[in-house]
Amino acid sequence: MIPTSYYIILSSILFGLGVIAFIFKRNVITIFMSIELMLNAVNLAFVAFSRALGQLDGQIFVLFVIVVAAAEAAVGLGIVILIARNRQSLNVERVDLLKL
Amino acid sequence: MSAPLLVFFVLAALAVGGALNLILQKHPIHSALSLIVVMVSLAGLYLLMGAEFVAAVQIIVYGGAIMVLFVFVIMLLNAGVEEHTNFSKLAGIAGIPLALVVTGFIAAAITHANDTVLAAPQTGAVAATKDLSTMLFREFVYPFELTSFLILIAILGALVLAQREHS
Amino acid sequence: MLDYLWIIPLLPLLGSATNGLLGGKWPKNIVNLVAVGSTFLSFACALEAVREFFANGQAPVHKEFFDWIVAGNFRAGFDLQMDQLTVVMLMVVTGVGWLIHIYSMGYMAHEGGYYRFFSYLNLFMFFMLILILGANYVLLFVGWEGVGLCSYLLIGFYFLRKSAADAGKKAFIVNRIGDFGFMLGMFLLFRTFGSLDFQTVFAEASKPAWGHEPWGQFGTFTIACLLLFMGACGKSAQLPLYVWLPDAMEGPTPVSALIHAATMVTAGVYVVARSHILFTHSDTAMLVVAIVGCATAFFAATIGLVQTDIKKVLAYSTVSQLGYMFLACGVGAFSAGIFHLMTHAFFKALLFLAAGSVIHAMGGEQDMRHMGGLGKKIKWTYATMLTATLAITGIPFFAGFFSKDAILFAALQNPAGGGVLYAFGLLTALLTAFYMFRLIFLTFGGKERFDEHHVHVHESPWTMLGPLVILAVLSTIGGWVALPALFQGPDYFSNFLGPVFGRAESVDAAGEIAAHHLELILAGVAVAAALIGLAFAYWLYLKRPEKADGLAKSMHGAYTTLLNKYYVDELYAAVVVKPLMWISTNVLWKVADVGAIDGAVNGIATGATAIGDASRHTQSGNTRSYAVWVVVGAFVVIAVIFFWPIVAAKPEIGMVR
Amino acid sequence: MSTFLNANAFLLISLVKIVIMLFLVLTVNAYLTWFERKVVAHIQSRWGPHRVGPHGLLQPLADGAKFLLKEDPTPAGVDKFVYFLAPLLSLALALTSIAIIPFGPDPLPWLILGQKIYLGITDLNIGILGLFAITALGVYGIALAGWSSNSKYPLMGGLRSSAQMISYELAMTMSVVGVLLTASSFSLRDIIEAQQHAHGLFGWQGIFSWNIFAGPLPQILGFLCFFVAAIAETNRVPFDLPEAESELVAGFHTEYASFKFAMFFIAEYTSMITVSCLCSILFFGGWLSPFPPSWTFTFYLPSLILIPFGAWVIWDGLRYETIIGKVILPGIGTAMLAIGAALIFLPALNSFIQGPFWLLSKILTFLFVYVWMRGTLPRFRYDQLMSFGWKLLLPVSLANVVITAGAILWRGY
After folding, report:
1. What is the ipTM of this complex?
2. Whole-prediction pTM
3. Would you give the DSSP letter of residue D101?
4. Which of C227, C477, C624, C650 has the fewest CB neighbours in a 10 Å radius?
């Protein structure tokens, strides 16, 4: 059978890719997606562990993570729409009103 | 090479490829599609681990709702190819090494870890959906209710944000 | 009751808190009820406690209620004690205090800040009781400072009047000087005996291991006692720190009666008597106490001669009477000192209250030169005040006679310079008689020197006269416990206090008979002196009033000197105040405050601004840079979790469990 | 050789099953179009297709040929990858969803490679959830098609369809929960079994023991919600706004021609079949006969239907004008007669055929209802659609869930 470590390494790779995307994408929506990617990576680890330890908590937690992700997506995309409406651009580097 | 391992590697390759593609693609829609690929392959991995319910939820919610929302928004805003600006020097300089370091860290942590759990093959009892629901509605009932509140608040927030202000 | 001694001080505190917090909204009678009621209850409790004390065969009581300060081997607990000395003080404080509360109801009836006044007064009662009940120096010091605070508050009660406010400040500051010494004394005691509990300290001190310190040797005891006495000087207005008491007359008259005559100012005497074991170890300390006391007595009496403000006269007389008490302590006649303390509490409180009644009758007039002939108008006040005057001047069979007599006798007995002390004491007695009767004659005798139409003299209400009468009775019979001593009987009072002072008394049984004859003679001399003073005052102020001014002119220098109180205030102003002002202006303010403190503060502020300027560039406003920072944070967290030796020596992925 | 076969029997059999299933589904799709056109025609009192082959029976073949042979232009400025991906996606997903549906209770009467062969490709124990998962992904085909066409009508269609599908998916899922509670399982097989054992109204073991009529709470509400939501999911009339001819030309597949268009077409019809299957399985007892098991003569219903119909077909063919008709129709008729007779004389086969027979008949009924609605109902307005979905359908299905749960508690199932 498949050792847990495979799953964990896979999830860490996905997480790292998510981090890279998080840093390097300029599009707000894509950055959101990279966050979702990281969440997914974590979920994978959760499920793998829950299976390895024969406990269900991991899967329960995955469910919660998914719920939170849904809520986050709803609000976040609302914000994205606002940004696009007000700044006529989805490039985060053009949304810099916080600049000193 | 046993069949499950084969399936695992196929799905893993799909997932990693999708993630890479998410980064490499310039157009948000393509990124979204590759992310969907990642999610579906993850669902396959869950099935492989016997977590059928989670797999289904993964596809229904992530694939069927969240990503649809993304695609919907992309279509709505008619988002074009992402322009390649480089205003943030910090990201330009420290970006790649930082990400690599973080990933390396995680990997190192895993290798560091004692392998009692890690080496264990995935031969735990397959979680019956019934047990899952029992757990969810017995032990985790309060978090569950709280998440419902969270969703409600998220809905309201999305409404308030997205509606055009009638001034 | 003895098990619940803490109730006695607690009651006035409660009254004070209630009145202070809520009294503002309440009508006067409720405020009265709270204030007087709490004081009376405390008085009743005190009586009950004393009854039980006697029932237990006068066994000293010492109760530890809870630990207050515990540091290393140092312990200052909330311990209350009760012995004969405490009994006397307790009776005086609660009893006289209660009477004065009643009196205040009438006196303050038309004043603003009614509830405030009574709140302060109750608070004072609380602290005073703590002072006399406390079983260690720390607790005593708490009461000590507390009464100081209350006296400050009450002197400055009419804080709209600048003079009152200044007087309050003066009292406070002068007391601080004394307290400085007192604290040093306490520290020295702790360093020497490793404790500040009376029991421990005195038990230590009475060990023969501690040698006696003869005259001129400055050992631990001498220094400690002198420091303590410094505090006592401050509190009890002795030379050179007496200056605050006359100004304290700015306060309402009941305050002067309670705090600046009956109770607080005697705290110094109480402390000296309480720590007599320490004092008796050192001749120097005793002698210093005696001399200071004697000097103060005489000095104040001389000033009192020419004062025209009725309360000022009484103030100086208080100072001089306190001097008597210290003289008694100094010559080792502690019981006599305490005896005088008690009687003085009676008649001086009475004097002040009566004076207050007079002022009340005159509608606030305090200058004796504008009084006169009041005897017919306000008979009760006149009678009671006359009684008190007779008592203070030592007319036989009045309270003051016995105590003053005992003091003079003990002074003469003193081996070191007894004669001088006695002479000055006697002279002081004469002067006392003179200025007291001068006060009486100027106030009540002769013809009116005020305008009938503006001032309509009226007798005070019974709430004021009642206490007067009671105090008059007390100051008449208050000394009769010592009556048998005149006829070779036992001296009940000193016997009663015997267990406390042990054989600190200088009177030894051997020369009992001779001593007794001598005592009678001395008594006669004292009475004679008093009568002389009386007669002179009578002649000068009733028979030949015009002579008084002539006399004043003829010895103009002395007169003005006395009138200006020997220029002591001016002296202090020149020697102490002005340099202090200069230092605090030019050094502390301009250099220390502006330069150092403000500089430091501003420096910190500017430094913060500079750092902010430097670090605000991280706030690029660019989301991607923020993303990088987020990742850095995650990086740090992971590093801590997995590679921190303490957090997880061998990090387990199994931490999921 | 045989060892290899035995070793990978499961794999091989699954492959074979898949191929057969694909063939069947595509054929059924083809003739479904024919069926639809006929029915709609008769509703509109027309003849419908009747030139190509007898009664236009060969029309689907002609259509197929046309789709294959037509020119397939790719519009300028489309996002090629997505443009090609979209139809594939929808078709693949639609076909996949069929794979989960079981078509009969028992395995084939004989073993193949030592394996029991069940009708139906696989039986997930989260079956229904899997189905929903697949249909949930179905939206991408349409949305992406609309977006990638780089044209405004398709974009509108895509937007509409994605919004509409997200909205109605909720209601659909919720309306099923009642059934799931009753059966306490996700597996379609278990759900059908549960309906078999459910106490029917007045003890009638049959039609009255199906979820729609029986169970702790008759799932009528649930069924209505599910059916409406399902129609919306499949973008059929009256919810066919994504492809509303009168408004958006042809909606999301305006820019698609020939075979790519055919893919969408097939996908749509396949999902129709799926939905019909689901309706009959979830609410109408799947392969269960509507009659009590005690009525043994009902076993012969297939024959009783096939034989007269076959006879009629033969008779009709004999008096048909064209040669082809004269040849084909009697052939079909005789085949029917033969099958009917075989069923009578082979009880084993007969009892095996019962389940599929009933299931197919129910599916046909629902397909007819589909077509019927298309023939009769007008189209919703978009805002009506949304408010209907969110303000009526979703609350009702939620209420259904709550009531059902209460009933289960109350009646102690």
Report:
1. 0.70
2. 0.58
3. -
4. C650
